[in-house]
Amino acid sequence: MSELELLAERLGRELLNRGERLATAESCTGGWAAQAVTAVAGSSAWFDRGFVTYSNDAKVEMLGVPVTTLERHGAVSEATARAMAQGALKHSRGDWALAITGIAGPTGGMPGKPVGMVCLAWAQRNGGCEALTCQFAGTRAEVRQQAVRLALSGTLKRVMAATLMA
């Protein structure tokens, strides 16, 4: 089992213990987080659905990301990542959502938004929404893998914190 699958398995156990479900919203990772989650046997008990919203139109149509957010901040921004996570919750039966949007490379970077820049967000139904911007190094595949690892570990951390606070 891969490192990502082991992480997904731990996340699944925590969600299952809470009776909660996960939804994912991904752009630059193209569904890799959802793939890692669904590689875990029994994930249908705690994974609701994944949205692959690579284009801006998909972000708007599938997740309800406001056009004004994309115009003002761009697809690779914490504002867009937050809107993606919140949209995944709104359009699913998930209790938790993770979102990933970024520039995996090797092209596509621009001043202020270099290749390897990834914005992630985590949202909890009836709870908060947090976002984070990271700069990853490496090939396209390495940037994407690092983003998925951080998205899953960040979700696990937040679910475990919610369990401790309950």
From TrEMBL:
The CinA C-terminal domain extends over 7-155
Q: Which Pfam families match?
A: CinA
Q: Which InterPro entries match?
A: CinA-like_C, CinA_C
Instruction: Report what the protein is called.
Output: CinA family protein
> Organism source for this protein?
Candidatus Dechloromonas phosphorivorans
Species lineage: Bacteria, Pseudomonadati, Pseudomonadota, Betaproteobacteria, Rhodocyclales
